[in-house]
Amino acid sequence: MPVSTLALNDGTQVPWIAFGTGTALYGKDVEQAVTVAIENGFTHLDGAQMYKNEASSGAAIAASGKLRSELYITTKLQALQPGATPKSALEESLKKLGVDYVDMYLVHIPKQHGSKLKEVWKGMEEAKSAGLTKSIGVSNFTADHLNEILEVATIPPAINQVEAHPYVWKALGPNLAVHKEHNIVTSSYAGLSPLFRGKGGPLDPVTEQIRARLEITRGSPVSEGQVLNKWLKQKGVLVVTTSSKAERIREYLDTENVPDLTAEEIDLIDATGAKLHKRFFVCRS
Ligand code: NDP
């Protein structure tokens, strides 16, 4: 079954779930992991210059036999070297990935650019105008960072990739308001954190209760990870995840086939998550 897509504010479509090559795969050779992800149905690959593995990701892309148009490739701009621009940095990424363009290019971490954020955004627009990327967006941007670049943007960011799970959802309020106003898709990383990084929190019995209900409704296995990813999907969030296991990769993609959470179940996760504010990453300034 093809992976369903989300519409972006620039008229393009993005697969709702991506296989990431950061976190557990950061700095590693990812050829095997990306190959397994593609073979099992992932079409959206989320990488970054900072992960130092674009070349091995590119090797898997080349060996996959997929047409370029069948894959959606994201990379992210790291801190600029002296004399470099977002466009020249992307040219380096394209060489490593072995492709002519990426689908999405994100400013990875706003604090890496200090007072130059507006200039960097104009550089992102230049990379898009040159045809090196179909879409541009940001990551780890607060509402203030977004408002800063929106002052000069002729192209608004299409997505903002941030840590998103029930323990930070309430705190994301100001971000989500700016996203809504400018039609920016919220993308999540660390979405499964309540299950392991934050295990023992108030959400544990709630996700298990909903999992059990969905499993009975479906008549086949449902995991707690699927409950959390479905919660994000039903909020219109683009999920970025990863796994070292083929079985879990298939489970992530199978999330689409899990019955919907009810409005009450979504509210229950929201309310329970709001009881504990817990962030696991420090990429925001
Ligand atoms: P998730 O929160 O979805 O976690 C995925 C990890 O969870 C995998 O390593 C997997 O391990 C493990 N896992 C899944 N289910 C369970 C379970 N039931 N019990 C225990 N462990 C489980 O995503 P990540 O936080 O890892 O981030 C995914 C991607 O997001 C990164 O690779 C990167 O591309 C991107 N990212 C972006 C950031 C940014 O600044 N823009 C920051 C952080 C991440 P296993 O291998 O065992 O399946």
Automatic annotation (TrEMBL):
Q: What is this protein called?
A: NADP-dependent oxidoreductase domain-containing protein
Give an example GO molecular function. Answer: oxidoreductase activity, acting on NAD(P)H as acceptor
**What are the binding positions for substrate in this chain?**
108
* Pfam families on file: Aldo_ket_red
Q: Where is the site labelled Lowers pKa of active site Tyr?
A: 76
Q: Which residue intervals define the domain NADP-dependent oxidoreductase in the entry?
A: 24-271
Q: What SUPFAM superfamilies does the record point to?
A: NAD(P)-linked oxidoreductase
Which sites are catalytic?
Answer: 51 (proton donor)
InterPro entries found in the cross-reference section: AKR (IPR020471), AKR3C2/3 (IPR044494), Aldo/ket_reductase_CS (IPR018170), NAD(P)_OxRdtase_dom_sf (IPR036812), NADP_OxRdtase_dom (IPR023210)
